[in-house]
Give the backbone structure.
Amino acid sequence: KAGVTQTPRYLIKTRGQQVTLSCSPISGHRSVSWYQQTPGQGLQFLFEYFSETQRNKGNFPGRFSGRQFSNSRSEMNVSTLELGDSALYLCASSLVFGLGGLDEQYFGPGTRLTVT
Amino acid sequence: AQTVTQSQPEMSVQEAETVTLSCTYDTSENNYYLFWYKQPPSRQMILVIRQEAYKQQNATENRFSVNFQKAAKSFSLKISDSQLGDTAMYFCAFTRGNTPLVFGKGTRLSVIA
């Protein structure tokens, strides 16, 4: 069974641009979560989608948005990029939503975004 | 809001020795779940072990075990017979169940030959 895939793996953008990252969950998984990982702040939750609906949202500005498609693939978009948006963006999928500790989250390899 | 604290930014251990990574958390909930995740240099995060708060028995997965002290809100990870492949960042995480994972800042573990 293929794991969680994220594209692209590396991305370099300039300030003010916008970017879209993609995540394909494990086949059959319907929940997708996004995290931002930086050396200073660690891992911070962005949002979680289940069955095309956003179920949870982290404390990030409105420049960060996401969506989930009917095939459970998810995208996140960051508009008007800032230098501080440079980070590793991780996507995780799980079978269902709400089972918390009973339902393991499987992480993708991440997308390394560099904003110059 | 729940918080997770890992007080050891870096640790090292000799191959075949035992090492313990610390984690404390703050919550007013009675039912919740705790995890240890491993992130090797290749970056893919994988689940090492999980603990349900309602279970008194400490979880064990092969060489990995936890010491869960609910009253003290402590959740440490013990790695026995350390191997070079255990070199990674280790993250402690918490969830109430239907809430996102809250991660600690991580502990960088180096296993030395």
Notes: The radius of gyration of chain B is 13 Å. Chain B is about 0% helix and 50% strand.
